[in-house]
Specification:
Blueprint lengths: L9 H20 L1 H9 L10 H24 L5 H23 L6 H23 L12
């Protein structure tokens, strides 16, 4: 196996940033369209505080994209961010699949769920590859 080079993973984190920025841009620029596409109705934004909650969620997702840019620039120094990202992406993917199975969200969210689960798996792969070897030092020869 060739030695681990964290910089080879920079493209992954740039792609994750683009994924988050694209999703957040649509959600923030066209909230009614977004709600219709996700939930089958823009009524989900009519409850008090729902529009603010929508903005908080999608602004947070955009800032997670900034985190991916930080990781992309220096992947070997940001393993903690990658761990948080892997857990977050896996959680969101599972929640969206559950929402679809409960008929609470549209099939479009399956695309987001699968995308987030793929990113979670790739982030986990990065972390596993980045772990230092646990091999014991060899005994010096007499």
């Amino acid at each position: 196996m060739q030695p681990f080079d964290a910089r080879r993973f920079s493209g992954l984190f740039y792609a994750a940033a683009a994924w988050n920025f694209a999703a957040a841009a649509v959600a923030l620029a066209a909230p009614e369209f977004h709600a219709q596409a996700f939930f089958g109705s823009s009524d989900s934004l009519s409850a008090p505080g729902a529009r603010i909650n929508h903005q908080v969620v999608w602004i947070s997702i955009a800032f997670f994209g900034v985190g991916y840019l930080i990781v992309a620039r220096e992947p070997r120094k940001n393993h903690g961010l990658v761990l948080i990202a892997a857990m977050g992406k896996a959680s969101v993917g599972i929640l969206w699949i559950d929402g679809y199975l409960e008929h609470a969200v549209s099939a479009l969210l399956l695309v987001g769920a699968v995308g987030d689960l793929i990113f979670a798996g790739l982030f986990a792969h990065f972390l596993i590859r980045a772990r230092p070897s646990r091999a014991l030092p060899s005994e010096p020869s007499p």
